[in-house]
Design brief:
Order of helices and strands: HHHHHHHHHHHHHHHHH
Number of helices: 17
Shape: globular
Length: 446
């Protein structure tokens, strides 16, 4: 079911859209979380460290592709909000073509350069081979990831956030089953976890495709819709590339943190991995709010309703700040106990380090909300390059903190890298918001 987000109460619209996206994001985390739990329990701490050591690389590659596909469909959402269905379908056809091209390029580049990248990141020798095997299989399945992300983004552009959720839940459950079968029954180790992940991702993408063909007449493309149109492609690229690079900039900073951790050894990597998994479960709400604001703002800018955009931002902030306070308290005091899901051995050394990590991030959830809501919301308004400045601030905060941590071999310093990034980027985005609203009012002639 498609939803017109240009009418109705903004708070209700945002909540109705955000909740399914949040649940879907949490289940998407189960891809890696199931890998981490099952690998940690049945392969061991070093297996967990191997999977965890590739997390930042996965974020670099998959994050770029996720941002890219989301950016490609901003134009789709704007055309849908404006009621221009023919142009909306043309934007979908061009987004699909661009996604195919990018998938091929990214698969080739990532697989060729992976060994050198792991070496550059000081991946510990005792986990290097497993880390390499795991990430190479993931890279080989990039097309499966892109298939789901582009189709889910198209559905969300039309206001449908529930259908992608259903398929994602099914895929997450399938991933867990395949993890158990490949690792426990067939003794495939970390390779089994990787194969389970990309298979489940592929299934979720195929299910989205079948649903669109059967049940979404607005997306039944004609032959002419598949014609490459340079003017449409240019608009999609001008938003998609910066959104993809935003994830990549974040990932580069995170890779610097990973390098600092790798110097500290496999216990530090395992603890950081477990802590990061715990954090990611709770912080998917902020990602969901960002996704919602991109769609909500795109549709309303297409309909020339700037006041609704302002109301939407205010509603999102009420939701996000309330959530940040509640979950921050929970994670600060009880987050470490979730680490028992991942840790099977060396608990005395690893769990106190997990506690340090979750305490560091828990007190900085409010600036993290502003980063996601404002950055994605501004991108949904059609500003592709401007939010990248916040990405540069985020890179500076995370990168400088990581370098200091590496120089002093400080685990606490590594844990503080992301919070520093959120504070710098969030502050800049708040300033940017006022400029963008004023500039958009001028553009729309309001």
């Amino acid at each position: 079911m498609q939803t017109d987000m240009t009418v109705g109460k903004p708070m209700k619209m945002i909540l109705d859209f955000t909740i399914p996206v949040f649940i879907g994001n949490v289940f998407q985390q189960f891809y890696n979380m199931a890998d981490a739990i099952i690998v940690g329990k049945f392969v061991g701490t070093k297996g967990l460290a191997a999977v965890g050591s590739t997390g930042t690389i996965m974020f670099l590659i998959i994050g770029f592709l996720t941002g890219l596909t989301a950016g490609f469909t901003v134009l789709t959402s704007q055309k849908f909000g404006a009621g221009k269905m023919d142009e909306m379908r043309q934007s979908v056809g061009n987004a699909a073509l661009l996604s195919i091209i990018i998938s091929v390029i990214m698969t080739a580049v990532s697989m060729v350069g992976m060994h050198s990248l792991l070496t550059l990141m000081h991946t510990p020798e005792d986990i290097f081979q497993d880390a390499y095997i795991y990430i190479m299989i993931i890279c080989g399945g990039i097309f499966a990831q892109v298939l789901y992300n582009i189709l889910a983004s198209i559905l969300r552009a039309l206001g449908n956030s529930k259908t992608p959720l259903y398929f994602l839940i099914l895929a997450a459950l399938l991933n867990i089953v395949l993890d158990l079968v490949f690792i426990i029954v067939f003794h495939m180790g970390v390779a089994g976890a990787a194969w389970a992940t990309i298979t489940a991702q592929g299934v979720s993408g195929v299910l989205c495709l079948i649903y669109i063909i059967k049940y979404v007449p607005e997306l039944r493309l004609k032959a002419d819709d598949w014609r490459f149109r340079s003017e449409i492609a240019k608009k999609e690229i001008l938003v998609g590339i910066p959104m993809g690079l935003q994830y990549s900039i974040t990932a580069i900073g995170t890779m610097m943190v990973q390098s600092a951790l790798n110097i500290l050894g496999s216990y530090a990597v395992a603890a950081f991995t477990a802590g990061n998994k715990i954090e990611n479960i709770f912080t998917q709400a902020y990602v969901a709010i960002g996704t919602t604001m991109a769609t909500y703002n795109a549709q309303n800018i297409g309909a020339r309703k700037l006041d609704r955009v302002r109301q939407g931002f205010n509603s999102a902030h009420i939701i996000g700040i309330t959530y940040a306070i509640v979950t921050g308290v929970i994670i600060f005091f009880f987050g470490k106990y979730l680490s028992y899901l991942f840790i099977s051995d060396n608990a005395a050394e690893v769990i106190p380090m997990v506690d340090t990590y979750v305490k560091c991030v828990a007190v900085f959830f409010i600036p993290l909300h502003f980063v996601n809501a404002l950055r994605n919301g501004i991108q949904g308004m059609g500003y592709g390059l401007l939010p990248m400045l916040a990405g540069v601030a985020e890179l500076a905060g995370r990168g400088i903190t990581a370098m200091i941590a590496a120089a002093h071999k400080s685990y606490f310093g590594a844990c503080m890298a992301s919070p520093m990034a959120w504070v710098l980027a969030g502050g800049l985005l708040i300033i940017m918001y006022f400029y963008v609203m004023k500039d958009m009012k001028r553009r729309l002639g309001l």
